[in-house]
Amino acid sequence: MYVYCVAILFLTINSVCPLQCYLCIASTTSDCNEGNVTSMARQTCHNSSNPERPTETVCVGYAYSDGDQQIVTRGCGYIFQDVNICWYLNLTVPVVSCSDCKTDLCNVNRML
Question: Of 102, 96, 101, which is closest to residue 33 (Cα–Cα)?
Fold first, then answer.
C-alpha cells in the first residue's frame, strides 16, 4: 500500500512540475555549441493552458545557417501535438542539426 501511494505521488508531482531546459544562443565556436553547462542558463518551460490547441513542451537544441554564419540555439520548444519540432523548424530556418527531448536538462549534447 505504501509503495502504491508513493508511486501515485511521484507521478502526480512529475506531471505538475514544469520541464527545465538549457538556454543559450551563440555561434558554433561557443560554449553553447559544446554543451558547456556552466555557460548556459536554465529555462523553465510552462505547458499551454489552452485545451483547444494542445501543445507539447520539449527541450530543443538546433543549429541553423544565417547567411555565412551558423547559429546554435537551445531552450524550451512548444509545438502542436503530433508535430515534430525539428521538422517544423526546418520550414522556418535552414536547420543544419536539430534534436529534441522530454526530460529535465536533456538538451546538453554538442550540436555540431
Answer: 96
Residue that the C-alpha cell 520541464 belongs to: 19
19-101: in CATH 2.60.40: no
The residue behind cell 499551454 is 48
Cβ-in-10-Å burial (0-12, 13-18, 19+) of 9 comes to exposed
Residue-wise pLDDT for 38-83, tens only, equals 999 999 999 877 788 889 999 999 999 999 999 999 999 999 988 9
pLDDT at 8: 40
Which residues are CB-contacts of 58 (< 8 A; sequence separation ≥ 6)? Answer: 19, 76, 77, 79, 85, 100, 101, 102
